[in-house]
Amino acid sequence: LDGLKNFRQWDSLTPGHPEVHHTPGIETTTGPLGQGISTAVGMALAEAQLAEIFNTEDHTLVDHRTYVIASDGDLMEGVAAEAASLAGHLGLGKLICYFDDNKITIDGGTDLSFGEDVGKRFESYGWQIITVEDGEDLAALRTATHEAQRNLTQPTLIMVRTIIGIGSPNKAGKSAAHGSPLGEQEIELTKAHYGWPTDASFLVPADVAEHMGKAVARGQRDQASWQETFEAYASANPEKGAEWSRRMSGQMPEGWDQNLPQFEEGGSLATRKSSAKVLGELMGRLPELVGGSADLAGSNGTKHPQYGTVSRGSYTGQTIHFGVREHGMAAICAGMVLHGGFRPFCATFLVFTDYMRPAIRLAALMKQPVIYIMTHDSIGLGEDGPTHQPVEHLSALRAIPNVHVVRPGDANETREAWLYAMRRTDGPTVLVFTRQGVPTQNAQAVGHNPQKGAYVLAGDDQKAPEAILMASGSEVSIAMAARDMLEAKGTATRVVSVPCMEAFLAQDADWQQAVLPSDVRCRVAVEAATDMSWHRFLGFEGVFIGMKGFGASAPAKVLFEKFGITAEAVAAAANR
Amino acid sequence: LDGLKNFRQWDSLTPGHPEVHHTPGIETTTGPLGQGISTAVGMALAEAQLAEIFNTEDHTLVDHRTYVIASDGDLMEGVAAEAASLAGHLGLGKLICYFDDNKITIDGGTDLSFGEDVGKRFESYGWQIITVEDGEDLAALRTATHEAQRNLTQPTLIMVRTIIGIGSPNKAGKSAAHGSPLGEQEIELTKAHYGWPTDASFLVPADVAEHMGKAVARGQRDQASWQETFEAYASANPEKGAEWSRRMSGQMPEGWDQNLPQFEEGGSLATRKSSAKVLGELMGRLPELVGGSADLAGSNGTKHPQYGTVSRGSYTGQTIHFGVREHGMAAICAGMVLHGGFRPFCATFLVFTDYMRPAIRLAALMKQPVIYIMTHDSIGLGEDGPTHQPVEHLSALRAIPNVHVVRPGDANETREAWLYAMRRTDGPTVLVFTRQGVPTQNAQAVGHNPQKGAYVLAGDDQKAPEAILMASGSEVSIAMAARDMLEAKGTATRVVSVPCMEAFLAQDADWQQAVLPSDVRCRVAVEAATDMSWHRFLGFEGVFIGMKGFGASAPAKVLFEKFGITAEAVAAAANR
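^ Those are the sequences you sent over. The predicted structure of the assembly is below.
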């Protein structure tokens, strides 16, 4: 969070790539290629859903296009392919993308590496294709745009043939005009080519100033007219009007967090299943909670068909079938939350966060509260084997600034994890759930404590113990069993459940000290993952029990034994 | 490495997904969707290059197809789109992909999320498309395969319409036949449908056994015949024959690592530039060193056109233009090394390893020594801003088992980093380089020490110091300047350069103790990145100087100052 404070210092600088919240008019952060068009698909989907929900026969509250300018580099990225394919599948007719087809990449001509028939490819996704032969031909661009606007059932790709660095006598049409400045001399030559005074800097020609001045007035007029529409709408439909204002403000309705599922001690429930229960309940209360899975809805616990499903021409449902497109899915969710009116979630197996990282990182940088539901969170998933078993992912996600990773240890911690994620407004949360059953702990001891990131689950919380056992997720029950062994031999042992390191590190020093007294150096951490993120809590004397490499294909129980992640190992480490 | 030892324990188990090295006949590890087809593109490219280099008019040493079976899930993944597009661009005619078009995903019919015209899409990439209407029609499959084989200038997609779980009376054609077992009763019904004995388990029908038995004999015949060809070839072309054997064995030629560039103390050189020098030298000595960049060749220092460039119909060059396809690039490199005869490298900015992670992880799991050249490694890249500035990536990459991350601190460390990467044979190496200049340190003190992961760069290496300053990459020079300040005030200070944590952790305890004496607790680590991976070396008493969040857009010098990553800050921390 310190980093974020630093970040604000830089608001006065012009970012090197477009960054939302820094420069007026910037609607999303781009730069990493393919992210812009993919985020835009989420914005267009958000518009389609809100239009369907809120517009009435008499009043049109929501009716705007999402415009994208994309380069060949953007279109080469896989994430763009994923998102564009889904946009075509869903028929997002208000999405219009101008392809800046300048035939130049940084390394040279696109013929070095990009031989695709781009139009045909987008046609295969179900897009309308329009070609503009000359990017300087404003009339042709206008005609193309109008044609795109008229098609309400297909997204449109307008392929605009352009010349990079146009007007620069020596660099136009060359890759030299891409990544580096033209240079002083070439700038002068370019100004001369345009008939501009060569010594003027940041020149705004009079006709441009006039044109843009009109844009401001037009914008104000449009906004006033929309405001009028909204007032008429709200007085004709007071409930809908209030709901619109609520959703766009990001406020959740009164009582949304009351009487959520409570789980009794004992029994065994996979946290993905307790998550499904809580999510199902929340979706009923919060229509803005919209999302889905990358083709693992049943496994991820995101299958709640009673709240409807988004499909081509019918956008109101709360479930989106993203297909096997993890990266596009994450970018689309960022677009929905940037649009406003949504709290999107998306889901897959934890190991596949690897596919989503560029979009997760951008959500963190943009401070967008997307929720990622990541199940099958360790070797505990069993027979699927090491390709599906995350071992480094908890550390790797905890490493991303402003991403909070919550891995609850039982069903009640899962409820609290959801509350924590829903209350975050300034960044994304990764919710990490087991495939396999885990016992429900003492609900009293859990309480709302998980929201503080780490807390004393068992043992005297007033008196410093001889040993501290730290754990998250499915390993909390291993730590509890290890504590029984240690206490039986007379060692005063505390179990600290650590569902969220980021939340714990944000607590005041008193809480941190109360939970992890700094003079108790006999510490063992247990997590069915690699150790990197635990060392800060272990110091040189502490011991980590977990994974040292990749997993293997076998039932969960066998794997925990074979990899030595057991209560016996934890107790033995504490004894040592 | 302990993890890898564990890993071997499991060789006797059948993996849940195909894993190379575990089951005979498995040529690559798949499971994470899209990786198989993308890896296959690398295999096909390897075949094309070796065929061009080694075949003569009289002897054909290399002439094989690469066959892929891909699902709709594979084809939905962006990585598959990237790799397939490049395969079409390069005209890899010996790549043949059967698309298992069963219209079923885990969540239900493909109509939920996958409305593409797949054939048209692959046509847009430049592939040949053949359709087989019935996956049970062996004659049609054979005809299609022959047609695919005849086309040597385009990869072929054979779209095979199939029924998932065919023969199962209640689950055929349904998603129930995808992710979970049929169940005992349904298995019996299915066997009954096929007219098989319902109580037989692992039944191999006689005609199948006969057919497969012939395959074994045919394989032996083919291998013997190839061996004959090779012997004739080697006797007619002894140099080429020896070179073939050398390359396929993975042995590097005598003296490959001698007389590499030495850099004199002083001066300032970006490590990406010293890397470019060393790489250029190595490419001249090692024709198997083949690779390129995702459209940043100049920036990454991988522009060595004197060794030729791969293009459609001409595959011998050592440079590949991957286009802006980081993920596909990484998977293709894994395929080349799996094929044999290559030491592939690929390059982009460090921040974009996020796009490549699934393929990096698979290379690590498969123990394939791909080399990733990752430049622009910190806020030191400057004006491009936080979207391009890695802060969490060093920790996030260090977290992946069997990935070694080497971030050299100067030009001579860069040479050693390359030697280290080239000598690795059992896993991938990420080479991390600066954009900005860094001073060259005392070459004597550097020596070959970087290969041990961490070493004493300055200060008495026999006597335990009062303070230890640890650093990697561009921050080594900051630690050196901080040492000057501390020594000037009489504090005996050691600078430990840490180019590779994984290499250091693999050293014996004596070396580790000699470099980082365990009783010296006054330790400061400095790295222009977040702290996670450093805590294990800092303990509770140590201090980390680095990033706490995302970067910003400004010149490198300004950023280091503003984020407090300075010699003054390091010295002050040590004094505290």
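The longest strand of chain A covers residues 95-101. Chain A has a mean pLDDT of 95.

Shout if you want it in another format.
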